[in-house]
Design a protein that fits this description.
Number of helices: 6
Helix content: 10-25%
Structural class: mainly beta
Radius of gyration: 21 Å
Oligomer: single chain
Number of strands: 22
Number of domains: 2
Order of helices and strands: EEEEEEEEHEHHEHEEHEHEEEEEEEEE
CATH superfamily of the largest domain: Metallo-dependent phosphatases
CATH architecture of the largest domain: 4-Layer Sandwich
Length: 391
């Protein structure tokens, strides 16, 4: 007997009257080869039912939830590199019936035996601006394995702004691809530099996001996809965030990073994601203390690319080491921070800066074995830069 036969049988395309309503989501987070977390919000505390399975068998398994408003449903035991479809059912309060509130699909990550993947990256988007919405519409045309955000998800970090500035603009992508978020200074709120900022993330960020438990969530963590490892760091201590974890040599975050960089020797690709930039010619410029703390570690363990935010522009450096262009041993730094907030102009000239554009943008990365190609698009969908690496 089909699992959904246990439900009252009413599945409508639209919500009937006096029924529980989806208020946010669903959105996907914390994906691996064999699991993903599905999150959503209903308008009032309500039980829900999530069915899923390898497509097209969307009703192979059924997970009922408890009656709460903020729903978090981790799905375990999934098949790697497999498209799964899922359906979300909510109760119709005027009867014993349920209705289908949402239907979608996602594809789990590949293992190292399949060395290819693609992802989308952008940052500093929280604004609710027309430019953010135009960019989001262009992003929705793509089908990435996952999405990276380089920080400043919300303009003031407040949960009350999250629907307008994050969940609604990216709803189509969030329902089919997991987002991995770096914390930016704005995500710590206006009081980030004072004692009043204590508990801000616990109230406005942590309850609504599922972060990999591989570091100290939500501050720093790593995740693996195919033959690559991504390190997402919290660099906001360098910007004065009083309750951000320290990243200087000897600190807990630094020791964690070094330990897992060392354990990543078997990974073909290693990426690091930060908010405050190491190398930038934008308005904020380089974070010299961050460079001193982090750059030696990145070179020691042969990090391939650093993705940055904070400066609201696009910038790509030449391979750089210790402030000098080094084509043989340098690291390329990419500032991807034109996601919707007001743009910055270039403030200085540096030999290591290969391209600077004050445009709204996002980047699409395509990795096949030892070859990487990045294509950067503006809000009109036009290509504004490309970049390739061969290992």
């Amino acid at each position: 007997m089909r699992l959904l036969a246990a439900l009252p049988l009413l599945a409508l395309c639209c919500a009937p009257s006096l029924a529980a309503q989806l208020e946010r989501g669903p959105y996907l987070e914390n994906m691996t080869r064999d699991m993903v977390t599905v999150r959503f919000r209903v308008d009032a505390a309500s039980q829900a039912w999530l069915s899923y399975g390898a497509a097209p068998d969307c009703e192979r398994f059924l997970t009922p939830t408890t009656a709460v408003k903020e729903q978090k449903v981790p799905l375990f035991g999934l098949l790697p590199d497999t498209t799964h479809c899922y359906r979300l059912y909510l109760p119709a309060e005027a009867s014993t019936a349920v209705y289908k509130a949402f239907e979608g699909s996602f594809t789990t990550f590949r293992g190292e035996d399949k060395p290819y993947f693609n992802f989308l990256a952008f940052g500093d988007s929280g604004s609710g601006s027309e430019e953010q919405l135009a960019l989001a519409a262009q992003m929705a045309r793509f089908s990435p394995d996952f999405v990276l955000h380089t920080g400043d998800v919300l303009s003031e970090g407040l949960e009350e702004m999250a629907d307008e500035e994050y969940f609604q603009p990216y709803a189509p992508l969030l329902a089919r691809a997991p987002f991995f978020l770096a914390l930016g200074n704005h995500d710590y709120g206006r009081d980030l530099k004072t004692p009043a900022g204590r508990g801000f993330l616990r109230a406005n960020f942590t309850p609504f996001h599922s972060t990999p438990l591989t570091g100290m969530p939500p501050h720093y963590y790593f995740f693996d996809v195919a033959h690559a490892r991504f390190f997402v760091l919290d660099t906001n201590d360098f910007y004065g965030a009083k309750f951000a974890p320290v990243l200087t040599p000897g600190s807990k975050q630094y020791k964690w990073l070094e330990r897992f960089l060392y354990k990543s020797a078997d990974k073909t690709w290693k990426f690091v994601v930060v908010h405050e930039p190491l190398y930038s010619t934008g308005a904020h410029g380089p974070t010299e203390q961050l460079v001193a703390a982090l750059e030696p570690l990145l070179h020691k363990y042969k990090v391939d690319l650093v993705l940055q935010g904070h400066d609201h522009n696009y910038e790509r450096t030449h391979p750089v080491k210790e402030g000098l262009v080094d084509q043989a041993g340098g690291i390329t730094y990419l500032t991807l921070a034109g996601g919707g907030s007001p743009l910055y102009i270039q403030r200085r000239n540096e030999d290591w800066s290969a391209k600077f554009l004050p445009v709204y943008h996002f980047a699409v990365f395509d990795v096949k074995d030892k070859h990487l190609k990045m294509t950067v698009y503006d809000k009109a969908g036009d290509v504004v830069d490309t970049f390739e690496m061969q290992k």
